[in-house]
Task: inverse folding
């Protein structure tokens, strides 16, 4: 059964401010969430989370099983099993490490295991590289994982708490991967408010696996072999769980704001100066930083540009995103990923948004940009260039079918 | 509306934790006066290799918005204060292939400050520090470079001395009181360290450096190829085989023209060609293949390729034939063998001077005898970091005598 970490003595109701990295913020949240089982196998940049958790355990702040696996495949398999017996679990990886765990990643959603994982986004090999690309996390986008992208250490901490609340909700019971941009978030230390355990206890109930608990008192078989008489019904269950997650995510954020007094009203995406924007740029993760700075510069010159930073990719906030984007005269999607041979050769996010807009009453021209791959800096100049192309499309009223690569030496 | 941007240039592994403490200390100190801040490392620098020049950054600003403004770059393009915690970094920085040689003051803004720990004179340092097209200040904390290992940390107060010095350099962002509070609150802080910060604040030396001063060398640089110029399949051409040194004799290997990596070096081997027995051990054991074979069968450490690891000194069977000497006492990368061939007596005199200087032959990292660390600490506290402990020239001198 789950081990309960003893409450720290002289617990205070006040938040405390710490200078911590995104990875350390995740470890703070895991400590507050009273994690039971964590597995570890090192790969940059995810290993920084492992190290931070290990420090929490060695410092006596967290009592949890820390299992060093012999590879990512075992790492994810171990927590999957721990979750079925009622443990709150955590795991994670990066880049090709995430790929090596693919078989386990694929079997987790149908078993309805509410695993929370951190993907420290990293370019897929080859070439061996450490910098951020979103393709690693995105490969599980079709198989029942919930996927979200975070931007700051604060959001890393808050989202980790929210993740357990959502994943472990009986209506959902799906795994959830939080994506953190390698380097920009995992390795940068920022001032972060860490809430007291008492607040977290008011927000996050204990994980109750109910009738799915693998326990001698509740004899069940998990994952029997099935033929064509059963598979499609099982998929339909997963489909429904993902659909229900939408409501659960809305509830969780509302409750988070009630308990902690912070957090976004719109869980799904951040809108920055997007209300009156002629051109809206869309991106995920820490790319928001140069875009926001560029937007402030552009606004000072009278150009109405805004940002929609997508937090949740699965479930995809189709209706809300369409409502937010169809107001604009042009939309530019900046992908920190690629999808070779895809429609228009565009990135994954651009094509999702194209699909989302298909049924919209008003479809603004959409431009697709690929930028910042392998951790390449997304410069203000890149953003200005994207904005100029979007304005040209806004004037002509036509989508530019070409996918633009920004910041490539050519 | 104001921000303070600092970079810490440090030696990979040996000073990794030192640099992290400094950048964290900057943010936490500035927080005491209500500033926002962020501390981060240049991601590409990690995982690090021993001695490779690496960078950490700290940005503090009045407002969160202004912090974002300065964080929007992958790494700062301009810094108000460049901090170098080893003075051999004054020769320049090359962390990766294709980076070229970057002057230590490259990112320092006009009228900014280059803050170093050093026992060298200003003039001696300015022979190494490249000329800059703008005036700046060179500020010195009188202390030798603080080198730790991956698993140990040398508690010689260098981190708090830097913080104390910064309170002098940028008083509107870091007050001495704020620095003191931040030190006391940190897990590695103590009242003694607060005192050390205060001493550094009081003892900081500084002078203006004009545009005409400094090393006139043009640092080597490269232009990276365009995507369509690169070979496909993540493939790069091999380095071609080498050539004889001259007249069909000797052997000089070709080396990576885009990554010389000699700025990794804190010490270099000085070779006595008169006592060399041509046993080949230095040449074979050098992990960077830095030795060129000379026509007479001796081995010349190529200073454009040597990383200063000291393996050659350790494996050489002849007493004092190879001696590691601190990089700060050399002004160029010229061939020792050529100097020896030209005039053997002059070379012997030059060599005797270099290897006879105990201050220069003390190991830049690691220890020579039990208790050295405690001795150094004692003297550092009293002397504000000025005292250093002399070492024994020749890593294996004792063994060789036996």
Result:
């Amino acid at each position: 059964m789950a081990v309960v970490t003893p409450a720290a003595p002289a617990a205070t109701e006040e938040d405390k401010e710490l200078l911590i990295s995104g990875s350390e913020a995740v470890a703070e949240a895991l400590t507050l969430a009273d994690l039971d089982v964590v597995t570890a196998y090192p790969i940059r940049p995810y290993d920084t989370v492992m190290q931070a958790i290990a420090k929490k355990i060695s410092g006596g702040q967290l009592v949890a099983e820390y299992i060093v696996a012999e590879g990512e495949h075992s790492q994810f398999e171990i927590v999957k099993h721990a979750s079925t017996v009622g443990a709150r679990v955590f795991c994670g990886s990066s880049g090709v490490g995430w790929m090596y765990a693919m078989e386990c990643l694929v079997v987790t959603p149908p078993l309805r295991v509410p695993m929370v994982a951190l993907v420290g986004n990293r370019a897929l090999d080859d070439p061996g590289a450490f910098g951020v690309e979103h393709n690693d996390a995105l490969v599980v986008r079709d198989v029942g994982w919930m996927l979200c992208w975070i931007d700051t250490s604060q959001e890393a901490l808050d989202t980790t708490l929210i993740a357990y609340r959502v994943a472990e909700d009986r209506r959902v019971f799906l795994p959830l991967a939080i994506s953190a941009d390698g380097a920009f978030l995992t390795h940068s230390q920022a001032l972060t408010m860490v809430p007291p355990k008492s607040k977290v206890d008011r927000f996050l109930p204990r994980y109750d696996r109910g009738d799915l608990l693998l326990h001698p008192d509740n004899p069940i078989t998990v994952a029997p072999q099935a033929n064509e008489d059963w598979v499609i019904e099982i998929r339909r269950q997963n489909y429904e769980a993902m659909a229900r997650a939408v409501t659960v995510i809305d509830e969780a954020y509302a409750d988070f704001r009630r308990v902690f007094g912070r957090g976004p009203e719109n869980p799904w995406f951040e809108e920055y100066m997007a209300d009156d924007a002629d051109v809206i740029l869309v991106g995920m993760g820490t790319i928001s930083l140069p875009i926001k700075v560029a937007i402030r510069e552009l606004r000072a010159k009278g150009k109405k540009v805004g940002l929609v930073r997508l937090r949740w990719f699965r479930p995809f906030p189709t209706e809300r995103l369409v409502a937010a984007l169809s107001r604009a005269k042009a939309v530019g999607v900046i992908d920190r990923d690629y999808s070779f041979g895809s429609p228009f050769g565009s990135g994954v996010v651009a094509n999702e948004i194209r699909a989302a807009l298909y049924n919209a009453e008003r479809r603004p021209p959409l431009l697709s940009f690929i930028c910042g791959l392998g951790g390449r800096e997304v410069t203000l100049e890149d953003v200005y260039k994207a904005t100029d192309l979007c304005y040209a499309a806004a004037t002509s009223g036509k989508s530019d079918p070409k996918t633009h690569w920004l910041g490539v030496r050519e | 509306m104001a921000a303070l941007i600092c970079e810490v240039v440090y030696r990979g592994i040996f000073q990794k934790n030192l640099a992290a403490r400094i950048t964290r200390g900057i943010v936490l100190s500035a927080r005491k006066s209500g500033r926002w801040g962020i501390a981060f490392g240049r991601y590409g620098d990690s995982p690090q290799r021993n001695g490779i020049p690496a960078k950490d950054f700290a940005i503090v600003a009045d407002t969160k918005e202004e912090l974002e403004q300065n964080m929007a770059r992958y790494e700062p393009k301009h810094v108000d204060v460049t901090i170098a915690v080893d003075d051999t970094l004054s020769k320049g920085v090359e962390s990766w292939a294709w980076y070229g040689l970057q002057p230590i003051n490259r990112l320092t803004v006009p009228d900014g400050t280059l803050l170093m720990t050093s026992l060298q004179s200003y003039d001696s340092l300015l022979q190494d520090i490249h000329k800059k097209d703008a005036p700046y200040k060179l500020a010195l904390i009188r202390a030798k470079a603080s080198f730790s290992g991956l698993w140990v940390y040398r508690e010689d107060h260098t981190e708090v001395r830097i913080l104390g010095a910064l309170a002098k350099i940028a008083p509107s962002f870091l007050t001495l009181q704020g620095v003191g509070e931040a030190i006391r609150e940190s897990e590695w802080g103590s009242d003694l360290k607060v005192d050390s910060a205060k001493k550094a604040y009081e003892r900081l030396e500084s002078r203006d450096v004009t545009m005409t001063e400094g090393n006139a060398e043009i640092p080597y640089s490269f232009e990276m190829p365009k995507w369509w110029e690169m070979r496909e399949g993540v493939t790069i051409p091999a380095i071609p085989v080498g050539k004889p040194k001259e007249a069909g004799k000797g052997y000089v290997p070709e080396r990576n023209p885009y990554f010389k990596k000699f700025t990794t070096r804190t010490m270099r081997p000085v070779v006595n060609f008169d006592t060399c027995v041509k046993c080949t051990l230095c040449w074979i054991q050098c992990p960077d293949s830095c030795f060129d074979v000379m026509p007479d069968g001796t081995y010349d450490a190529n200073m454009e390729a040597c990383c200063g690891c000291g393996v050659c000194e350790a494996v050489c069977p002849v007493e004092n034939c190879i001696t590691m000497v601190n990089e700060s006492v050399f002004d160029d990368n010229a061939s020792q063998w050529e100097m020896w061939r030209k005039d053997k007596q002059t070379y012997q005199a030059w060599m005797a001077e270099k290897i006879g200087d105990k201050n220069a032959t003390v190991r830049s990292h690691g220890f020579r005898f039990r208790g050295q660390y405690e001795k150094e600490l004692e003297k550092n506290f009293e002397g504000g970091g000025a005292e250093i402990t002399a070492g024994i020239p020749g890593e294996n001198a004792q063994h060789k005598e036996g």
User: Anything to note?
Assistant: Chain A has two domains: 16-260, 269-405. Chain A has 13 helices and 15 strands. Chain A has a mean pLDDT of 95.
